[in-house]
Request: fold
Amino acid sequence: MTQPTTIRRASGQKSALHSHLSIALGLANRSVPVLPLRAGKVPFGNCPACRDNACGGRPNMKTPGPCDCPRPCHAWAAATTDPTTLTGPAWASAWKQAAAVAYHPGGIGLTVVDLDHADAVAWARRTLPATRTVPTTRGEHWIYQGAMPSANAVRDGVDIKSTMVYARWLGPGTGTMTTLPDAVRTLIVKKPSPVRPGTTPVPTGGGECRHRTPVYLERGIAMAEQRITEAASSVHATVYRTFLAVLSAHGRCGCLTDVHAARLFAAAQVRGESPRHCADAWSNALTALGM
Reply:
């Protein structure tokens, strides 16, 4: 994906309306889904049912798509690349009041590691692979290529912003963007971790290996994470069926590891599954496959 470039103001006399809308349109032209934010980094509600977040944001935050309104209303579900929507009457007053522009990182296959203070930044520099960074008011955004479930407070001062959330646009940043590492993916596994060596059975192999390159397995795990994350209903059944499919396709040769299982468990927990439900679903899938 081509990264958005800085949108420069043509004149210091431009109003906030034109400044924020100009940035949004420039990003949308680069296929980045955007939305306006009011003061306090809060999204606008574009219908009476959702104004001032009266709906609690739940429809937009818990399901992959718009809320119950006739149109995408607010929060990450409202992020769009459509210039007609951005400049249309529904958002006319929003842009007049906008304090910032936000974007949906997961919508363009990115993950933002939001580091909220200096200690968090120091931890990232010791622990995570270098990537593109963007300075924030109190810390930094580290941006990786690859989407994953989002989670807040994965450790002190660290949030993960990717699918089904928005992040403030603070500029294109500096440095070369790198691929999302497992060190970030495993941050969202709830503690105590439901996947520890010796506690959750992972197949040890013995069958023919079809993973001639790491890409085959990685694609399968990523698709499974997406399937769980995008489940609009029957999450428990979806988790079990997904575990069953992953183990059927990837579990007999020994390439499936605790790290892969942790990613699937984490995606399920983000959708509300408990560690016990995850462990039971995994165990039942192993039993069903005779593994």
